[in-house]
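Protein folding task:
====================
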Amino acid sequence: MNSQKAWMLCCFFNFLIACVFGLLMRFMYLFSLDFLNYSFLLHAHSHIAMLGWVYLIVYVLVVHFFIPKEKSQKPIYNRLFWLTEFSVIGMMIAFPIQGYALFSIIFSTMHILLSYVFCRLVWKDCTKDKSPSQRFLLVSILFMILSTFGVWCLGPAVSTLGKQSAFYQIAIQFFLHFQFNGWFILAILALFFKQFQNKIDEVKFKKFYFLIIVSTLLTVTFPMRWFIENDILSYINILGVLIQLGAFIYFYKMLKSQMNYFKSTLDKIAKMVYSLALCSLFLKVGIQLLTIFPNLAEVSHQIRNFVIGFIHLTTLGIITGFLFGILLQNKMLSANSEILKAGMKSGMKCFILGYISTEVLLFLQGWFFYFGEGTIPGYFQSILIFSVLLVLGLLLIMSSIINSASRMPVK
């Protein structure tokens, strides 16, 4: 097994563990598990999903697509990957046992410091061109570094004002906003643009590029508004989401002329996964537009189902959807027998069904709460069953990767 395939398998293992933690949390709504702490498990689930799955699979794909072969095979990339995975394993063990405490903080901090090393390496080694994909990659790295400023504020926030303070809560939201909307989504788009081999309208791209950066910076005011009573923050967020709408209108126009050619390079399952990712992306833009209305902006963070649904829309629908599409398109999830190919397709379909079903239930339950209708009959049982599909889908995908002797394509 070559190193990049081992890396990829490791990423899917992390994703599986994150999904199992999520499944256990849904199990705990129905059955008592006294040996597990729900909030500790929640910390483990979110950290492993973000830092063990999304961060590391982006690491793998950035090295594969953006770092020239002679540089990507330097030992530093392999060592850095496994050191980062060591920090993830540390969090995987520490968070369920102790929550936010000494060892989980040590491993989380280690991950951040290693991410700085990765940023430095990519900045130094990636191909020096001014293609759309290259520019998106570099700005995503800057957003990643910016996001960590929020983490470094947590210590001073706790020591001076405590965990309940607005300062502490805003520092967390600052980190999450720029991780998801800055680093992750822009890095995913960089990888996506790479698939078009830079055949993108330069004028439309420049407008999209400028508008998406501005909107990402402005919309950080939305979660800040939860903790600071200030109408100016609301107005800035409204401006941000309107600019974001403009950005994605240019995104659509930019790719429209390329789509027929692009679709012709994809098989049926890759088309389905990319369609899911693009639909989730435009749904996210639409949901953020709704925060223009004050009453909807208020309930968007007060009703937990909406919060979880939106986070999963971003992580499972947009980010994971694009990642799966890129992996399938480039035969990086290829299988060398009809049985394994069937297993891979079944795994993808199972995962997609689990994602769509849980999202529908989460948002539907959120609207039930909004209209004062209470809990949907059988809600907890249903969402647990559909969550099993996510885990089952990943197991099928992983079994195909493990049993496949095919190699990743050479750049």
Notes: Residues 405-411 have pLDDT under 50 and may be disordered. The radius of gyration is 21 Å. Residues 91 and 105 are 8 Å apart (CA to CA). DSSP finds 17 helices and no strands in the chain.
